[in-house]
Amino acid sequence: MIKIQVGDIIIGDEERQIINDIMDSHRLSEGPVTREFERLWANFIGTRFCVAVNSGTSALIAGIFALIYDNRFPKVRKGKKVITSPVTYIATSSAIALAGLEPVFVDIDPQTFTLNTSQIEQLLKDGNSDDYCMILPVHLMGYVNDMDEINRIASEHDLVVFEDAAQAHGSIYKGKKAGTMSLLADYSFYIAHNVQVGEMGAVVTSDKDLLKILKKVKANGRYCACAVCTRSKGICPFSDEDFDPRFTHEFIGFNFKINEFQAAIGIPQVKRIDDIISSRQKNVKYLNDKLAGLSSKLSLPEYSTDISYLAYPMIIKDKSIDRQKLMRDLESAGIETRPLFGCIPNQQPAFSYLKEQYSGKLPNADYVGLHAFYIGCHQYLSESDLDFIVKTLVEIVNA
Ligand SMILES: Cc1ncc(COP(=O)(O)O)c(C=O)c1O
User: Fold this and answer.
1) For the segment 48-98, what is each residue's pLDDT rounded down to a tens digit?
2) With a 6 A CB cut-off, is 171 part of the ligand 1 pocket?
3) What DSSP designation does 192 have?
4) What DSSP designation does 350 have?
5) How far is the CA of 86 from the centre of ligand 1 (A)?
6) Within 10 A of 382 (CB to CB), how many other CB atoms are there?
7) CA-CA distance, 85 to 115, in Å (whole number)?
8) Could you give the CA distance from residue 146 to residue 14 in angstroms, rounded to a whole number?
9) Atom of ligand 1 nearest to the CA of 138
10) Does residue 348 have its Cβ closer than 6 Å to ligand 1?
11) How much is the pTM?
């Protein structure tokens, strides 16, 4: 039986109360509770706006399509290239490809999984920088990319920057929160994330025009995106034209809307997110201290109070240790594990059409993809849970 999950959730009285209120309100589709979640998340991150959507994947897709539909970014068009990370949950690359753009990969730092910015610069120098439209760094496991460098390179080459902060709820880079250092950013509230709702995501931005397009893209391109429409009557108070704002569509969009229950589960967590982040940091520090004896065999996560940890990632250094066996042994002992996603162009079947192009070119990503894995470090773990992890891991690794 699994004792230590990668992530856990306990629904408290506040969530239950909000859910009961929603049931009594006769409105389940997104409304005031969703607006409150958006207000709280934007406030926590430090952007002007937040748009809730039904997953982190939808947040990526909505963000990319909003840029495509926004005339201020003529470079963001079908066929253009987006520089991104080869080691991430597949949604990052899938969203780029589904929007008709081409993901282009540079290698990563083997410890923090962040983009190698010298390789980005080299790529743009060697190729035609007009072929590129965007840099989409991923703050994997909570580690924030070198955003100063990324923004410098992007502004030199007129590229949009879009942070995938799905796994970095509240991580800090030089005093700034992940998600505030670019035009827009996405988050996921999937299981195990600091704020988790089961399924939900969000896009944040401080750009009012982009906000309007994002709201339309997530609601089937619906013409109306303002906050004061008389949506229930289908009459726009600002226009005499004969159109129903609910059923007039400016863009070809998606249905990425959420329901009020998702927002209800998220709200109390956002209110206590500082405590969630600090208890995860405390757990990482505890595990690092107690597992230091394994550091010749396993590389342990870098510790910093600037990192908001999604989980506790480890990379196998001692090649005599088989990752598959190690993960199976941990699972049998009751500790849930996950591989660190794999190197997308070289190890993910969905992107195998890129394998020839990238074979041998991403050594760090290939290594991490094959030798890294993670376990939970979430806020519900007790000291005895952490001691159990330590004892089990030491026994299995030293066996
Ligand atoms: C880096 C990254 N991007 C995007 C996503 C997609 O989020 P979701 O699973 O909510 O669709 C995830 C999911 O965990 C992720 O880790």
Assistant:
1) 999 999 999 999 999 999 999 999 999 999 999 999 999 999 999 999 999
2) no
3) T
4) G
5) 14
6) 9
7) 6
8) 38
9) 1
10) no
11) 0.96
